[in-house]
Amino acid sequence: xxxxxxxxxxxxxxxxxxxxxxxxxxxxxxxxxxxxxxxxxxxxxxxxxxxxxxxxxxxxxxxxxxxxxxxxxxxxxxxxxxxxxxxxxxxxxxxxxxxxxxxxxxxxxxxxxxxxxxxxxxxxxxxxxxxxxxxxxxxxxxxxxxxxxxxxxxxxxxxxxxxxxxxxxxxxxxxxxxxxxxxxxxxxxxxxxxxxxxxxxxxxxxxxxxxxxxxxxxxxxxxxxxxxxxxxxxxxxxxxxxxxxxxxxxxxxxxxxxxxxxxxxxxxxxxxxxxxxxxxxxxxxxxxxxxxxxxxxxxxxxxxxxxxxxxxxxxxxxxxxxxxxxxxxxxxxxxxxxxxxxxxxxxxxxxxxxxxxxxxxxxxxxxxxxxxxxxxxxxxxxxxxxxxxxxxxxxxxxxxxxxxxxxxxxxxxxxxxxxxxxxxxxxxxxxxxxxxxxxxxxxxxxxxxxxxxxxxxxxxxxxxxxxxxxxxxxxxxxxxxxxxxxxxxxxxxxxxxxxxxxxxxxxxxxxxxxxxxxxxxxxxxxxxxxxxxxxxxxxxxxxxxxxxxxxxxxxxxxxxxxxxxxxxxxxxxxxxxxxxxxxxxxxxxxxxxxxxxxxxxxxxxxxxxxxxxxxx
Length: 616
Hints:
With 616 residues, the chain is mainly β. The protein has five helices and 38 strands. Helices cover 10% and strands 34% of the residues. A hairpin with a 6-residue loop joins strand 23 and strand 24. The longest helix has 19 residues. The N terminus is likely disordered.
């Protein structure tokens, strides 16, 4: 009866949101309203007392969660450094961003027996992109609209639910969320209204709530936080609104700000000379994908987005540190090194995917490498050190006609002038603005030595710029949305999406699996010799042989799979977990493809968490 009452009053997630200050104010208003209503009716005193007591309890947070967690193993620094194989404790499983699990109960020989064992509908539409995070049988997922669900990873029972109350005047350009971080007894959520929250892992109650920036100025967050050495680190989105990007760290226990490093240097800072006049103030360069971490060097590595507005001619110069990988000291935030993949971007080629940290043997020597399949269509091999990021090699993994050549020492590209759009200048270029690979992460399997790239081939694009005037909170991109063109090449009738496998030691592509649809599938690979991938508009989630690329299994889901897959084990049983829920840029790109092809493709929305295990 209590939950029904709250539903009638329009209050969502009454169990988990009771510690939200704004919700408390709403509840108090309802409390006063009920008191006045009942005082003028013939309701009995026990009924009034029951209802008012219930409201008071929820306001002050003394009720337990739906299914309170009596046992929860705290996540320590040591466990994040050396996570147990049965758990998936962070965005890509490990600090090196491999997207790999050594679990091998599900393998090449038996994966055909994989069946759904439980599902959970999130009740939310749009793009479901977060990985299921699992800590000793307790699972956490996020959804669009900043909902966090805690579930029993074996049975699917809901343990608690938290839904962040978003401002009514919030404009959500990318209504999604890419997951939580876990540390100690807390769960950390970055929100689209630019808050960082710490939730009690046992109950979902808010422990602390830190405002990171002002959403009215265009700042928002969609990434999963990164936790290292007791600090919670986040980057901000909003490049389309003329923000000034940054990465910021907070004390994991208290939420106290520890350091803040801007991705656009200000006056007196190295790199500011690469921005003319005051263009740095609204230079964009967002950070919207979780970084990697090297504990030996104590450096975090973050990919950065493009500068703003989109047309590079409006901000002549290299525009540091746009379209780069930056190395930040985890303790202080000090910028230790960087590499810019391409300078003065005019193609919206964000390079926000964090580099994969691995050891590569190339040209007779061992390299502590950063590997990045770029949105600009090049596969980058860099060398990391305590105070440097050195260029080693790069080559295109899809058709690319913007770079005329790369400097063999620095990797700096020289551009084909006819491929650079500008103000009132339309230019065609390959790949399209969604790139050879957008945000969906690649994966690395140490048993094969292969890097697996979710790619899009045979797609070019065109842009034409216009003058832009900055207004806080308004789009500041310098082009009309209708002037964004997607230009499928003739080969696109055969296929667009690809899954590529690259031998990083040999420096060559080993196999390619193609899909007629474009591909928005994050990659998971395992010790069972498997690669898992969704991402296509036919709603399939698939398993491939990691060595050969042979399709071994597939399951059609409710929607398109753009969620980051993970795997875990409970009571000796291995599970594969992924969220299915199409939306955001996957849907926007589909609409432009339909326009180009004269087709109409329907991909149903609505989020469902799918859990698979071996059948009998």
